[in-house]
Amino acid sequence: MSASSFQALDYLEQLPVQTHRKLYEQPSTVLAIFRCMLPHLAKSIVMALLYMPSSFPAADLDAWFRAESSQTKRNALSILEKLHIIVSKQDDERKPHYELYMSFASSLRQALEGSGSHRSFGVPSHKSEERRVSVEFLDKYSQRQWENILFYLVGGTVGFRNPGGQDIGQGTKNLLHLAGFYNHSRITQDGFTFVLRDTNAQVWSLLVAYLRNAPQQRMSETDILNFLFMLGSLELGQDYSTATLSATQLQMLEDLAEFGIIYRPHKSASTFYPTRLAVTLTSDAGAFSQATTTASSLGGGATSKGFIIVETNYRIYAYTNSLLQIAILSLFTHMRTRFPNLVSGKITRKSIGKAISYGITSAQVIEYLETHAHPQMQKKKPFLPPTVMDQIRLWEYERERMETSQGFLMKGFGKVEDYKEYVQYAKDTGVLVWQNDKLRMFFIDSIEQVGAKIKRDMQRAAARA
Amino acid sequence: MNAIDASEHHERVDESVPPSLLAIVLDTNPHAWAHLSSTLPLATALANILVFINAHLASGNANSVAVIASHSNKSCFLYPTPAPSSPRPQPNATNGDVDMNGTTETTSYSVQDNPNKYRPFANVETAILNNFAKLMEGTKESHLEATPTTLIGGALSLALSFIAKATLLHSPSTSNSDEAMLAIADPEAIHTSYVSLASRILIVSVSGDLANQYIPVMNSIFAAQRKRIPIDILKLAGDTVLLQQASDATGGVYMKPERPEGLLQYLMMAFLPDPTARKSLVMPSAGGVDFRAACFCHRKVVDIGYVCSVCLSIFCSHDLPDNLCLTCGSYLSLRAAQSNPPALIPRKKKKKKRAGADSATPGGSTPAGSNTPMHA
Amino acid sequence: MSGSDYSGSEYSGSDDEYVGPRGGGSNAAAARRMVEAQQQQAKKAERKAQAWERRRDDSSEEEEYVPTFEEVEDTDVPEKSIQQMEEERKRKRLRKDTKPFQRGIIRHVVLVLDLSEAMLEKDMRPTRFHAMIQYAQEYVREFFEQNPISQMSVLGMHDGLCLRVSELSGNPADHITAIQGLRTPKNPQDFSKEPKGSPSLQNALELARATLYHTPSHGTREVIIVFGSLLSLDPGDIHQTIKDCVRDRVRVSVIGMSARLKICTEIVSRTNAGDESEYVVATDQELLRELLLATTTPPVVRTSKSAQAVASPESAAALMMMGFPSRVVEDTPTMCACHGILTTGGYTCSRCSTKVCSLPITCPSCQLTLLLSTHLARSYHHLFPLRNWAEVHWQRAREKGTKACLACLTPFPEPPPPDDTHREKDTNGHGVNGGMNRFVEQAQMDWDESGEQKASESSRYECRACESHFCIDCDMFCHIVLHNCPGCLSKADPPDRRTGEEMEITP
């Protein structure tokens, strides 16, 4: 399971039962959820249950798992229950049994067998070959659209604009704003997280934002999800008919076309093409990593595999001519030279400091470098030189010398004994954060217990007096 | 700090499940399926296996599959479609889906347009069904009369070669011939940080006696053992120790269902979990495997046998005609077979003492210079 | 590399013969073998020269050309040749003679490690000593993988003496722990085995000879010396020791690390019936590993005159009594006879019912060899090796019309249009089977097979038996790991490779 599907899983989990029920009526959705959202062991459980004639006694399930992996089993079962895929029932002898939800099971069976007449895997449009759009064109199109969005985010910070790209639509801008990626005309920390991820994860985080925004737009979440999961099961280069789509889905077409997820020849066209961004929605493979055909166009050599080489002397060589990648790199590197297919630079304390001041964390920088490491780098383990990784982290810690925590400062103790007693008490209750014996002060993060003790002692002292 | 980094990184790798390549060897021996036709006809079995393949493909995004038919007169690929029928684009093993795209040219258009089927599933299914039909058409009566058995050794060899190549393409170091070589020779010696391809072989077997292919099958088993490829056996009919040994030696699943008609449930429950999932599941195994040898002369199971030192043939008695090995014809002395240590032969005993004395000298703690051996 | 090449094992004295057909002299197969042997003798002069050439280009080629990533990526025009060079590099490993020689399957090997101060040299990383210890462990593992019914002992040449590191036994774990113990002694009282002093080849050979003395005559007696020094400090006349080794049928191979030594050449050539190819020098770490691992292949059996004088020829082959025990499963742990550890389950000796914990093993109480049938099966590929596949020329590729590798379905490059008539004529006579004069060409093919394995211009490699085409990777996999030809085994009525070879052993 990739990081990207975790976000979608989080979103799915918090949906109510009714939505799940509706979702599971579509075999394509069920298949996509099964393929992408479930942990590995959960898949095994679902498959074991799928064709089982009776329900599965919990005792047998326990016996099926090795004793040492009961933790992973519980984890898998809890996700399955949260997603309303399996249900635990009790039989006549009050022994627990597991069963799949009917709708999920029948849809998954239909998906695997290819039976039924649900038409949920997309209705291809019958069009003569020559009028079709080529895969290269689709790749170029989707890449251009997507890079425009990324450029919109980072462009302002880096200080240069995408020369060839046009501006993105107002709807997308609003969405980026709603998602918290862009605020007060500059990119936020979440935005950097977004930009530094791999393409597939980016697409999902944007779509999750889109989903959260759906109720305001009076769009049905179920329809959106069904459509997205259907997109994931389509074939690149094939055009599909819009005839079977619901009103919500038709409305979505426009937005998705703007993201570059689908392509429509014109706004009122009765067909649409899924792009590579769409067909890889429900797979782990990085969206552009397969787009070898476009490697020479926008992304340069950058898109193919990894392209960054990091040396132990903090120098970075990136085999790319993609402006976007250079822009992202320049967020945390001090760029030196640029050649037709190569840029070189150096990671310095200053450059990392600058990145951190934008709100980029060292973990993000390292993850970015790791995901885009050159195949030569990937032969080693870990991919990056440990010294560089450590230093990037240390530079981050350097800026975090001060730590703030809220609490209460206790001072003005008359007697040393009193002071010591209260300090000891605070220590024992585990609320003490800081103490200074000389000034007879200490700092605690919660006042309740210490305050109560003081009150008690004062009452006692008053009573004695 | 360094230690922390390493562990963090490790965890990250462990989280992701390696893509899994499943090679299914389908025993299509018509003789054996004819016996099974009352309970489980071949067509039903094939349909069940197709659902199983879809389930496997669905279980991981980069999962891929290869299907090999082990027929009575030949063994051949059912999926991916071998080239002679249609030239294919270069398969790219970094992504299993490409394998599926490869066969789109051979699939018939009617299936392509089916909106009720996930496209990759449809592609695989059509290719398998087409190739299977071709295989059956090509089977003539003369082939059936020739042999009652199936070419499991060839099918296994094809599967192993296919897996080896896929593993090689999957690892990023293909550009470096040295490492690629190492990967061929011994997979454990290579330190690649990539999540490697986890492959396994499933043999759906219906044929009984496979003794005529003992050496090829054994060689395949050892190759699988060396490459850590588990061989799962689903034995629908017949019984053979050889396949039991295969699953036992490679750590695979062995199952001989009592009711073959419940094939799909067996497949889903016992054979679907890939090596990653198997780590946390209790998998059925062959149990007590008979590793005792059968003699080459009478096929008797022996406890104590006599082995030819030249060709390693096993015999149940030492009374061979003219003391010649039945397999290789070497003259075999029985003297050595009596397992008397040569030290008991008087003439040699003397010699042995001398040699023993010699050996004692350099091994001891006395200085080397004073230990001149006593040879004239 | 050349260490694995047993093709050079015939030497000029023609008293070498194969043991196999001694019994029934009058049948056809035996006659064919004789012819074959004669052919080989006729070729010996060429072979010698070739072996020498090979060694030279081994060492030079290794350093000269290492294709880097960038080169493969960036250059377009010479890509083809680079690919060919890589394939050639790969196929070098295949240059084993794949004729079904009788091989010594039951081996008794003494591995002698140099623990003298020369091993502290840092030309290998971190030192020669550490590199050797590491490879020796790998070697032990691989050795028992390939030769499960063989025995091994490890000795060390340390400060003038020869130490016994591990006793002659068939348990790889014992040897590996012992070898590890050289670096980190388990017993604190043990004196340090860090490299020290000078080595003594004589002491090592004497101890090895004594170790191998008891071994039955149907097995081989081999000594493999890893020698880093340039000197040997011997207490007496080493030539006498060599003579004794020759008399006791001990074969010595030496893997040097520095330079060729006259005395090593002599030891090797005297004990290997004049063949010097068992003396090799590792120029770098990787080569050392390869040379060591090459000796895991069982050697070709031969009997020389001097050995016949001592042991009767019959004793070379024997019928061995072996036990095939069954597994026992116990609930309560019991003591095993081999290690004296409490174990649940194990195997009981078929003759005396002693419990042992692992196989293969010699029964500690009745000396019966106990093993599983699978252990025997592991050695079959040495006896019935997979023949090397032939390079395929474009013309042949067109003829067969193969588009993809039979085994892995990787597509082959398309053959160029057949306009190059000049070349075609040239290739026609050489590598392509016309079908007419098969038997004449058979000899030619045999010769090709044991010769240098080159890269094929069409990236195809053809199995001579089933005429299927394979790619380079499958070629490597099938010959190194699988030992099966997927093509031959996938046809019910192919010209059967297996029976063909068995016949050659069969009189």
From TrEMBL, chain A:
It is found in: Nucleus. It holds the Pfam family Tfb2. This is RNA polymerase II transcription factor B subunit 2. Belongs to the TFB2 family. One of its GO terms (cellular component) is transcription factor TFIIH core complex. InterPro entries: Tfb2_C, TFIIH_p52/Tfb2. GO terms for biological process: nucleotide-excision repair. Transmembrane segments: none annotated. Residues 390-449 form the Transcription factor Tfb2 C-terminal domain. GO terms for molecular function: ATPase activator activity; double-stranded DNA binding. Coiled coil: none annotated. It comes from Bimuria novae-zelandiae CBS 107.79. Component of the general transcription and DNA repair factor IIH (TFIIH) core complex, which is involved in general and transcription-coupled nucleotide excision repair (NER) of damaged DNA and, when complexed to TFIIK, in RNA transcription by RNA polymerase II. In NER, TFIIH acts by opening DNA around the lesion to allow the excision of the damaged oligonucleotide and its replacement by a new DNA fragment. In transcription, TFIIH has an essential role in transcription initiation. Keywords: DNA damage, DNA repair, Nucleus, Transcription, Transcription regulation. Gene3D superfamilies: 3.30.70.2610. The keyword Membrane does not apply. Its main location: nucleus.
Automatic annotation (TrEMBL), chain B:
InterPro entries: TFIIH_Tfb4/GTF2H3, vWFA_dom_sf. Residues 80-115, 342-376 are annotated as: Disordered. The keyword RNA-binding does not apply. One of its GO terms (molecular function) is zinc ion binding. Residues 101-115, 362-376 have a biased composition (Polar residues). Component of the general transcription and DNA repair factor IIH (TFIIH) core complex, which is involved in general and transcription-coupled nucleotide excision repair (NER) of damaged DNA and, when complexed to TFIIK, in RNA transcription by RNA polymerase II. In NER, TFIIH acts by opening DNA around the lesion to allow the excision of the damaged oligonucleotide and its replacement by a new DNA fragment. In transcription, TFIIH has an essential role in transcription initiation. This is General transcription and DNA repair factor IIH subunit TFB4. The lineage of its organism: Eukaryota, Fungi, Dikarya, Ascomycota, Pezizomycotina.
TrEMBL record, chain C:
Residues 1-94, 413-436 are annotated as: Disordered. The keyword Thylakoid does not apply. Component of the general transcription and DNA repair factor IIH (TFIIH) core complex, which is involved in general and transcription-coupled nucleotide excision repair (NER) of damaged DNA and, when complexed to TFIIK, in RNA transcription by RNA polymerase II. This is General transcription and DNA repair factor IIH. Residues 1-12, 27-42 have a biased composition (Low complexity). Residues 108-296 form the VWFA domain. A zinc finger (C4-type) spans 349-366. Keywords: DNA damage, DNA repair, Metal-binding, Nucleus, Transcription, Transcription regulation, Zinc, Zinc-finger. Gene3D superfamilies: von Willebrand factor, type A domain, Zinc/RING finger domain, C3HC4 (zinc finger). One of its GO terms (biological process) is nucleotide-excision repair. InterPro entries: C1-like_sf (IPR046349), Ssl1-like (IPR007198), TFIIH_C1-like_dom (IPR004595), TFIIH_SSL1/p44 (IPR012170), VWF_A (IPR002035), vWFA_dom_sf (IPR036465), Znf_C2H2_type (IPR013087), Znf_RING/FYVE/PHD (IPR013083). One of its GO terms (cellular component) is transcription factor TFIIH holo complex. PANTHER family: GENERAL TRANSCRIPTION FACTOR IIH SUBUNIT 2, GENERAL TRANSCRIPTION FACTOR IIH SUBUNIT 2-RELATED. Its main location: nucleus. It is found in: Nucleus. NCBIfam families: ssl1. Residues 43-58, 419-428 have a biased composition (Basic and acidic residues). Residues 59-76 have a biased composition (Acidic residues). Pfam families: C1_4, Ssl1. Belongs to the GTF2H2 family. It comes from Bimuria novae-zelandiae CBS 107.79.
